[in-house]
Design brief:
48% of the residues lie in helices and 4% in strands. It has 261 residues and is mainly alpha-helical. The protein has 2 domains: 140 residues, Ankyrin repeat-containing domain (Serine Threonine Protein Phosphatase 5, Tetratricopeptide repeat, Alpha Horseshoe), CATH 1.25.40; 88 residues, Ankyrin repeat-containing domain (Serine Threonine Protein Phosphatase 5, Tetratricopeptide repeat). A hairpin with an 8-residue loop joins strand 1 and strand 2.
Length: 261
């Protein structure tokens, strides 16, 4: 009969071995080492419940989220196909996208795939039931993240699946506001065709859409917003007294030829 001391030693060694194996599994998921990932996963599941394998552990992360972030399609597909019943697609973790360098807290697998431009993974996650509007800790949705990083295919995919264009982040910037901020007339025209837009929205600092267009010196965006029915908030709630507003030439069909504000 084994002594209690020996049993504790065996248990401790097994736990350490599983923790090391889980760390290696995460590395394989992030780097797309599919055969090694499958082998490690098979070994780990001998002593660990699948749900515990796939849920994030502190800053160590989740195999699904890491694979989605790094664009590892094969691993994401394998996980979704074989372990969907034990997955929570709304698990989150803190990530640091390579293209920004700053930490993002509360990121789901879908958010990571959207910001990284991995449209095939985005489609798979949505088909598996991922929440299309699940925001990170700053209330930034996958759609806003995709627009911020100029992921055109992902933007179209999310819009066609019904992503909400009006959800604002902690700065008050919604996906609909992003084209105004970036002086992107084509994107603004596109978003108008998807869902009802709130033309009275402002940033968290109280700056309305028309003031943003004015600050960007964008006549095209300004004119389009006027055409859509946007009203300028005067004085601007963000500044007191409000700064002078330059005149803009506006097509006659919308307003008199020249507006002096």
């Amino acid at each position: 009969m084994l002594s209690s001391h020996l049993l504790r030693h065996i248990t401790t060694s097994s736990t350490y071995s599983d923790e090391l194996l889980h760390k290696e599994l995460l590395d394989s998921a992030a780097k797309g080492k599919f055969p090694l990932f499958k082998s490690q996963l098979t070994s780990l599941l001998k002593n660990t419940h699948p749900k515990l394998v796939f849920q994030p552990k502190g800053n160590k992360g989740s195999p699904l989220i890491l694979a989605a972030q790094k664009g590892q399609n094969m691993i994401v597909s394998y996980i979704l196909k074989n372990f969907l019943e034990v997955l929570d697609l709304e698990y989150t973790m803190t990530v640091k996208p390579e293209f920004t360098g700053y930490e993002v807290r509360g990121a789901t697998a879908l958010w990571c795939a959207a910001s990284g431009g991995n449209v095939n993974i985005v489609r798979e996650l949505l088909e598996a039931g991922a929440n299309i509007n699940h925001s990170d800790s700053t209330s930034s949705t996958p759609l806003r993240a995709a627009y911020f990083h100029n992921r055109e295919e992902v933007i179209m995919c999310l819009l066609n699946r019904g992503a909400d264009i009006s959800i604002a982040d902690q700065l008050g910037q919604s996906p609909f506001m992003m084209p105004v901020l970036f002086d992107d007339e084509d994107a603004l025209r596109l978003l108008v065709t998807y869902g009802k837009v709130d033309l009275s929205q402002t940033t968290a600092a109280g700056i309305d859409l028309l003031h943003i267009a004015i600050e960007r010196e964008s006549k095209e965006i300004f004119n389009l917003l006027i055409h859509l029915g946007a009203k300028i908030i005067w004085p601007c709630r963000a500044q007191s007294p409000s700064p002078p507003i330059p005149y803009y030439t506006v097509p006659e069909v919308y307003q008199p030829p020249v507006i002096y504000l």
